[in-house]
Design a protein that fits this description.
Blueprint lengths: L6 E5 L3 E3 L5 E3 L1 H10 L7 E5 L7 H14 L2 E5 L10 H6 L3 E4 L4 H11 L1 H11 L2 E5 L1 H4 L4 E4 L7 E3 L9 E3 L8 H11 L5 E4 L3 E6 L2 E7 L6 E6 L6 E3 L6 E3 L10 E7 L1 E2 L16 E6 L3
Parallel strand pairs: 1-7, 4-5, 4-6, 6-7, 8-10, 10-11, 13-18
Antiparallel strand pairs: 1-12, 2-3, 8-9, 11-14, 12-13, 14-17, 15-16, 17-19
């Protein structure tokens, strides 16, 4: 619990394939540990796979990757029942909580039934780094778009709301995601926010976005905002300059997306390096049609 402020890393990433071992912690997961600033002992990371139904084969891959990374890893599970007698004490003793993907809707229901939502809020306030990929990135926001209700993509405006705005994930790998998220933001069903391509992430200190990161070159993060009148401006990120919106007629200008080029993380993150200020490049602002 050594983060200097309440910290969240919301990503589209997690484990990666290894050369010798089956699985390794990817750069984004290493970055979550780096943000915790652990000194003099093995970092403690607890994995929570509620969104995927607590599948044991996933736990095996995570434990293998943790051993390779020198991490003291554990799991919180709720199926068929909680595996830890004192859930609050366990979570508060961790450096990083990493939440994996799956059903955001089911995750929220189970967490709230067991009071984990309140425990995680307390842990965040005390300096435990909250992080995760896909549903594990969406959950910290006010809402997002998800496949939790079936084969289609729909809006869920009932996230934990620890950080403001909405989030979309898998923006470049699932063709259904972009139009569904644009429609939800345009209609006001979801607030404005961000969208993550594969391998990217957002770092928040408190409720402020302080860094945009990626584990691969060429990836992008998108600021998704409702468009005003033609000629209005759209903020690219909380600490970056604005970019002009498209000059398309207002009827076609429901949403403006602004591309952000993330800072690329090293292949192997150092646990002693602290986060640098946001240094992203605004490459393009466009109004989807």
């Amino acid at each position: 619990m050594t983060a200097i402020a309440p910290t969240i890393l919301a990503t589209c990433g997690g484990l990666v394939a290894g050369d010798w071992t089956d699985s390794l912690y990817g750069p984004l997961l290493h970055h979550a540990i780096e943000l915790a600033q652990v000194v003099g002992r093995a970092p403690r990371v607890t994995h929570i796979n509620t969104a995927g139904g607590d599948q044991r084969h996933v736990e095996g891959a995570e434990l293998e990757a943790a051993r390779a990374a020198g991490v003291d890893a554990s799991h919180v599970r709720f199926f068929p029942h909680p595996n830890i007698p004192d859930l609050r004490a366990h979570v508060l003793s961790q450096d990083v909580v990493w939440v994996s993907g799956g059903s955001l809707l089911n995750l929220l229901a189970v967490w709230r039934a067991h009071g984990l939502d309140e425990i995680l809020t307390e842990a965040w306030q005390r300096g435990v780094v909250l992080a995760g990929g896909s549903a594990g990135g969406l959950v910290w926001h006010e809402g997002g778009t998800t496949a939790s209700r079936g084969p289609g993509i729909s809006a869920l405006a009932d996230g934990l709301g620890l950080v403001p705005g909405s989030l979309a994930v898998h923006y470049d790998s699932d063709s259904r995601r972009r139009p569904a998220h644009q429609a939800a933001v345009a209609s006001g069903e979801l607030p404005e926010g961000y969208a993550l391509e594969e391998g990217t992430g957002l770092v928040y200190r408190g409720t402020t976005l302080v860094d945009v990161v990626s584990e691969r070159e060429g990836a992008a993060v998108w600021r998704v905002a409702r468009s005003g009148d033609a000629g209005s401006t759209v903020p690219a990120s909380p600490s970056a300059s604005t970019a002009p919106a498209s000059s398309a007629p207002p009827a076609a200008a429901a949403v403006t997306e602004t591309r952000i080029t993330p800072r690329v993380l090293p292949a192997v993150a150092s646990t002693t390096t602290t986060t640098t200020p946001i240094t992203t490049t605004i490459e393009e602002a466009r109004t989807p049609r």
